[in-house]
Amino acid sequence: MEIDTIKNITTIAAPLTKIVLDTFLVPKFKEIREKWNRDNKIIDHSFENKFQDYLNETFEKNAILNTLAFKKKKVLLNEVYVPLTLYNSELKTKYKIKNFDDNLFNESNNILITDTAGMGKSTLAKKLLVSCIEQNKGVPILIELRRLSRDKGIIDEIIEQLNPINDEINRQLILDLIKRGDFIFFLDGFDEISLTERQQVTKEIQRFISKARKNKFVITSRPEEALSSFGSFQKFQIKPLKPNEAFTLLEKYDNYGKISKLLISKLKEPKIYRDIEEYLTTPLLVSLLFTAFEHKQKIPFKKHIFYRQVYDALYESHDLSKGDSFERDKYSELESDDFHRMLRILGYLSLKAGVKIEFTKDELTDIIQKSINYCQNLDIKPADFIKDLLTTVPIFVKDGIYFKWAHKSLLEYFSAQFIYLDSKEKQKALLEHIAFHNNNDSFLNIIDLYQSMDPIGFDNVITYKLLKDYINFLNNTYKNFSGNDKLIRQQFAFTHELYLINFPFSPKTKENHPRELFLLLRKEIKLKYSKIGIRLNVIPDEKNISYIKVPEISNQYNTLINFYYDNGAMFIYKEEANIKKKNIDLKLKRHKIYKVTDRKNSILNKGENFRKTNYLIQLFLGHFSILKIDVSKAILYINDIENRLKLNKNNSLLDF
User: Which domain does 415 fall in, by range?
Assistant: First the structure.
């Protein structure tokens, strides 16, 4: 992509943003100006220009795409974008996003787009934002949520982007404008909020949405339990790419050249396609595949090898304009292995800092110095390493005053590599820490990458602990109960903290509104860890179950069980819920919260109530199916791991 073409975006942006300004903001400015001038608060007319400058910058920034497939080159979003499809599993609706689509907001002005690493959530947000301006659908505001903290709210971020002269007056003006509507807020990367800031920032987002309810909101994130705090949002996921969509993307990356043609021909070979099919479903992995293949013209079949080949391609990249023999010198003068080692430490320190993907220059300099100190034998300057990160080995990108990992998955790859290669005697403790962390859904991609790197070590530590914890739980809980009903309850209780409450909903009145139930639950239930949101599925015909609700809080074991199921583990099975509608009355006091425990004298466990409570849990928790651990297979798997560990301990191979 020629730099002149990118510069032309500025010319394209101005008339488009002027239309948005005149349509949605100028009339509001006029109303506010009349009101404020009566109160002797004079609004500077230049604020309108500030807002158009902001819209221009927003359009220009998001109309350009940085992706690993292009290394340092920038390309126009519209030239490489392949329309992604959003779907809502509950409503059975789907939308192919070619441009901004008003239909997305048919059910609610608030939508939540969640999916796993690399599915294209941020790219989709960029596309919606750019086309929102192109189609004059509203005033888009992009908030990258990783920049928020307990000391910096959404309005602070908007003011920082607008860079007004008088912060105090402009803060009031911005709030007044927002309350009048017509804004579309793209809150990108909920999962990228630092874990140490997550709880406070979530409250700030909720407060802001409540005050600005006349506007539209789009939140993007990887799936995380904390998102249950946004229960009123309409939930969408991104459909995996179809093979022809993946091939089109590869062609766009190569401008329909020879490399993509050769790669696609290889991918169409039945055996290769079977082995690589999973990696053609996400835009990120397609871009990694192209980058890796462009470098070595070899298709990597394991996930972590994708990343290693991408790293090699970035480190060894040639400047074709200077001939094939030209290779950029590294400012740090580090060889590939030492550079990789520095990145492993940098990735781990970023993980340790709360999965921090973005830094100020001082923060990045500090964390690089710590990485150098850890290496001990490297004599380099942080400033030189930063230059390499941005230019000769573009693992990082600069965004205004911030420096960030080019993609969160790169941080995850290098931190997983650190645990595998550099953590020494602390490896087991680190693996258990991330796998069984209360926020382990934030670490799933690291867990997945580590399993790819070290499947046997992964089983010996993580799988072993999961299954041992499960068997110990079965042996040490519900001792006063027996039979299949006991096992059913234990299977639920192992993965969830559960409650029952008699609380009839009356959404049309203030009394007994769903919002009131959640306020009551949050007040009465002491949450054990910051990530938690209380989840409550909606069940029709609640009169038949005496208006009982079953709020639930899933734990780290539930996250892991879903992970193992998705990876085809033999000891996890899906039980189809054969639920027949029945009338249930447990005689629960209205609005009193009953915790599900193994206490024999609990009203939930007395006589027939034990089975009825199981039924209600399954009704709310399972809907159509529930994942469970097969006890006998779990015991066999534990025995196999213990025998393997015993064999390795007695193996004389390393004797000298």
Answer: 336-453
